[in-house]
Q: What sequence folds into this?
């Protein structure tokens, strides 16, 4: 682990005790000779980095980590996710343990998890009108009373070749999720749970009109192309990580592919992910070794 000279703190002020914890972290980091800069996050707003950072402390819940990841992934800044909400799948460091975990990371002992992110680009009449990145998911959803969208799906490999037609969907919407996002909206809509460090994407229709439209998992080297058909019974909205929205129109094309940058998460490894799964989903059971198995 290289020398830490400057740290960013993204502090979710909607979380109780976030300001006091942020102040305590700043005092400790400065005692160690590390310069700090704090950004107070209230669920919205844009942070413009004013220089280079060696790490970022995310003080909040999983939503704060999502914001930090989108903001800092292009700068390849590792994120230290301190959890101030309920047990999170991403924010895994308990406030009382941050010093020990931070020191463990400085010694090269704490895991650095690389998480696939997605680049989402909206094309209208041949021109790019929006471009975003996400750590969890991109969701295309219907607005209004008649919540049925019509869309076609294709995929193209990064190595080129002809597009592969994946099918035609009539549904309330569509989720394209990362492995990290597999435990968010996608799993609530019946999608599979993926190991967080897999290189794959989930395509999951929301309440499909045809029951044969099922969730699919495709390799991360594919670009998923969603084309909104000309006749729609509803308005259309694109939501990225549940935090950024774009209005869509009929005939828009949405290109979703792996981002060039991964999110770097400190002490948020596979072990912590499965521990959160067991707790949140109430999985239980004894050890597989040294005991008696039951059919």
A:
């Amino acid at each position: 682990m290289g020398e830490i000279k400057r740290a960013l703190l993204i502090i979710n002020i909607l979380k109780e005790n976030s300001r006091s914890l942020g102040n305590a972290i700043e005092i400790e980091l400065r005692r160690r000779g590390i310069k700090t800069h704090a950004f107070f996050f209230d669920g919205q707003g844009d942070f413009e980095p004013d220089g280079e950072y060696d790490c970022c402390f995310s003080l909040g819940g999983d939503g704060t980590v999502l914001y930090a990841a989108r903001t800092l992934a292009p700068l390849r800044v590792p994120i230290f996710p301190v959890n101030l909400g309920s047990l999170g799948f991403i924010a895994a460091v308990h406030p009382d343990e941050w010093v020990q975990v931070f020191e463990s990371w400085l010694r090269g002992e704490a895991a650095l998890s690389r998480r696939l992110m997605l680049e989402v680009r909206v094309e209208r009449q041949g021109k790019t009108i929006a471009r975003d990145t996400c750590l969890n998911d991109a969701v295309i959803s219907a607005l209004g009373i008649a919540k049925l969208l019509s869309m076609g799906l294709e995929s193209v490999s990064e190595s080129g070749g002809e597009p592969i037609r994946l099918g035609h969907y009539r549904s309330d919407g569509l989720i394209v999720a990362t492995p990290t996002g597999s435990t968010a909206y996608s799993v609530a809509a019946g999608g599979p749970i993926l190991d967080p460090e897999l290189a794959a994407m989930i395509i999951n229709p929301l309440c499909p009109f045809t029951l044969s439209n099922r969730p699919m998992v495709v390799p991360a080297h594919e670009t998923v192309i969603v084309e909104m058909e000309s006749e729609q019974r509803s308005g259309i909205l694109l939501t990225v990580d549940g935090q950024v929205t774009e209005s869509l129109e009929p005939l828009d094309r949405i290109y979703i592919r792996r981002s060039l940058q991964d999110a770097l998460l400190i002490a948020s490894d596979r072990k912590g992910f499965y521990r959160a799964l067991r707790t949140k989903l109430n999985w239980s059971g004894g050890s597989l070794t040294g005991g008696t198995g039951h059919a």
Q: What stands out?
A: Confidence is low (pLDDT under 50) at residues 290-295. The chain has two domains: 6-115+262-280, 118-258. The CA atoms of residues 34 and 176 lie 39 Å apart.
